[in-house]
Protein: Helix-turn-helix domain-containing protein
Amino acid sequence: MGKTLKEKLKELPLERQEKIQNRTNELIALEMTRQELRQKRKVTQKQIAECLRIDQGNVSRIEQRTDLMLSTLRKYIVAMGGDLQIVAVFPDSDPITLIGFSEETSET
Structure:
């Protein structure tokens, strides 16, 4: 029977195990929910609501939704002082930043 990942990791030198754990921690820290991101940026739901000209309850709903329009997400990120970028990641190439999603277009 094959070895588990944990078993394989235990076979590595301690220094290598520590590097892997540190990188794992870095990657985990980069993944956040919208609410965690807002809290880390020290922005309140009320501040987001005022910027978006909606009520605080709608901000809460934005943070809880699993299916969100990109335009809504972009406005939410901009309200915190950020910019939304969409990146496509493939196993056989470098990440590719997609254009045409970050900027609000005015169609008149």
The domain at 12-98 is CATH 1.10.260 (434 Repressor (Amino-terminal Domain)). The mean pLDDT is 87. The CA atoms of residues 46 and 56 lie 5 Å apart. The first strand starts at residue 86 and ends at 88.
